[in-house]
Amino acid sequence: MTTNVFWFKYLKLIKKIFSNKILSIGIILLFIISSLSAAYPQPQINTSNLNNSQQAKPDTIVKTPETIPSYISSNQSPPNNIFRDATYLNIVPASQTVGFSQTFSIIVHLDPGEPIIGVQIDLSFNPSLVQVISVVKADPIWFFLPPVINNTAGEIHGAAVVVFGYNISTPINCFQITFTSLTTEGTSPLILHNVIVTNQYAQPISSVLNNGDVIVEGPVNFPPVFGVPSPVNGSVNQPLSLTWGIPINDPEGNTFSWTIQCNNGQYSSGSSASNGTKTLSLSGLVYGTTYKVWVNATDPGGSGVYTRRWYVFTTIPVNLPPVFGASSPVNNSVNQPLSLTWSIPINDPEGNLFSWTIQCSNGQTNSGTSASNGTKSVSLSCLAYGTTYKVWVNATDPGGSGVFTRKWYLFTTKTNLPPNEPSNPIPTNGSTQVPLNTDLCWTGGDPDSYYVTYDVYFGSSFPLAKIKSNITSTTCYVTNLEYSTKYYWKIRAWDDNDNTNVSDLWWFTTKVDTSPPSLDITQPKRGYLYYNLLGGKLQGKRLIFFTTIVMGPIEVIASASDSQSGMNRVEFYLNNEWKYTDYSDPYIWEWKERELVFPYVITVKAYDNSGNPPSVMSRNVWKIF
What we know:
Layout: H1 2-17, H2 21-36, E1 43-45, E2 61-63, H3 70-73, E3 88-92, E4 95-98, E5 103-111, E6 116-124, E7 130-137, E8 143-145, E9 148-150, E10 155-162, E11 172-181, E12 186-199, E13 204-205, E14 208-210, E15 212-216, E16 225-226, E17 235-238, E18 242-249, E19 256-262, E20 267-273, E21 276-282, E22 290-298, E23 306-315, E24 323-324, E25 333-336, E26 340-347, E27 354-360, E28 365-371, E29 374-380, E30 388-396, E31 404-413, E32 423-426, E33 431-434, E34 438-443, E35 453-459, E36 465-471, E37 475-478, E38 486-494, E39 500-502, E40 506-510, E41 518-523, E42 528-533, E43 538-543, E44 549-551, E45 554-561, E46 567-574, E47 577-582, E48 587-591, E49 598-608, E50 615-624
Parallel strand pairs: 3-14, 4-15, 17-23, 25-31, 33-40, 42-44, 44-50
Antiparallel strand pairs: 1-2, 3-5, 5-11, 6-10, 6-12, 7-11, 8-10, 9-10, 12-13, 12-15, 16-18, 18-21, 19-20, 19-22, 22-23, 24-26, 26-29, 27-28, 27-30, 30-31, 32-34, 34-37, 35-36, 35-38, 38-39, 38-40, 41-45, 42-43, 45-48, 46-47, 46-49, 49-50
């Protein structure tokens, strides 16, 4: 009865304080839990060591003994001036600048002046500038009551957080609100209002609100920008005819007008141009002269601002001989194939025609006269493995400088590699239940694409026998294997240069014989009279149907066979007493003993080589003499 009165007082106190339904529900739940645990110590959150960006974790809780004051259970008011510090609710950051269509967030941060158990807010914003994406709790310790978001009116209504069984006494983040900006410039105030901060006694307290704002700014339009010219600024030894070029790009993609003018009077220009490289063809330049090139560009429909730069280059001082570029393959390269095309760019700086020769140390050569700038080559073949070759290159421009350019280059051919190691065995290594007739398969080949042959080693004991030699196939068929037998095999590969590679040692086990032998007693047969009298002078058999009778000595004959693992032996028993074991076909026991006229049981047991249980057959016989 006392407990029910206690709960009623809490509910009455909460309804008196809160008119907001969302926070009321949270506080009601809080005091139900608190009343059930009033007699026990109450933990308290300590976030003094956390900054605003960190989240309080359960393991940062410091438990401090605290019970509900007596004036709550007795419906009294708390003592006056029990807390003296102000409580602050801040928007963080207070101000920020964002671009169009940008996602950004703010934090509603609580700096309590006394222990707090709950916070509820409304927040206003300019919906023509920003829109709310989401509102979530900013610290996992809170129980969160989601708000109503009205992006048309620019309002967040009723966002609330509460804690159960704890007090918040140090600064903590309450809410994280995520916005997206629209495409209109301006400043949107972020105004907190209808704020309810509840202390540990379930009473609303006054708080200081520090509001914020967000500034939405559109992009700035920039004039065209220039890239690196070709030839680069300050370059020397340039030819007397060239194409001078420079990348011109507008950051916003606006069309632009441009001009390129050289101090020799040649120029080019364009309008309504798009981003890309713009060029000026120059000719008739003079040896050893420095030229200046001016570049202007503007985007009339964008910034309207001009970008202006000037650049210089210097032509070659005198007529120069041909020059060589980088050879292919490059000088001192290794692992080259045995057939290749060796080439090198040869260019005359003034564009004069030239003669050239390329000769390799293996005797192969190529040459040309009245040649123009470009790549020259020689085809090389039948090179030797692991050999270093020298290539000489000569070129001269008879109508220009008349000077020879001579250089030599080296390259080394690859070494011969052994065949690939045989791999990927079939049957896979360690296979079981492999048939008695099966293909052995593997993967081979040669990294140099040479012809490869294989030797196959196989057997159930070591050393393994070579069962195939110099085969080109990667398959070998083996037959008549034994049941339940472990076989080993490996493959050795050879190439044309007698390089070799051997596989791992693989093994597999053949399938198990699970069937016992077949068995039949072919003599004496049931329903016959067998006689062997007068020392064998009188012998034969007669059909009597009803039983089996033997008179005199007789050979007991059994027919037994096993098509899988083969026969091991046949045992003969008389009245369960072992008499004879035969190891080869035909399986015979000669029954010579003279017996009284009495019924006997002949039993035959047949065993195979796999150790299966024997096949057993019995026959009842009357024996006379």
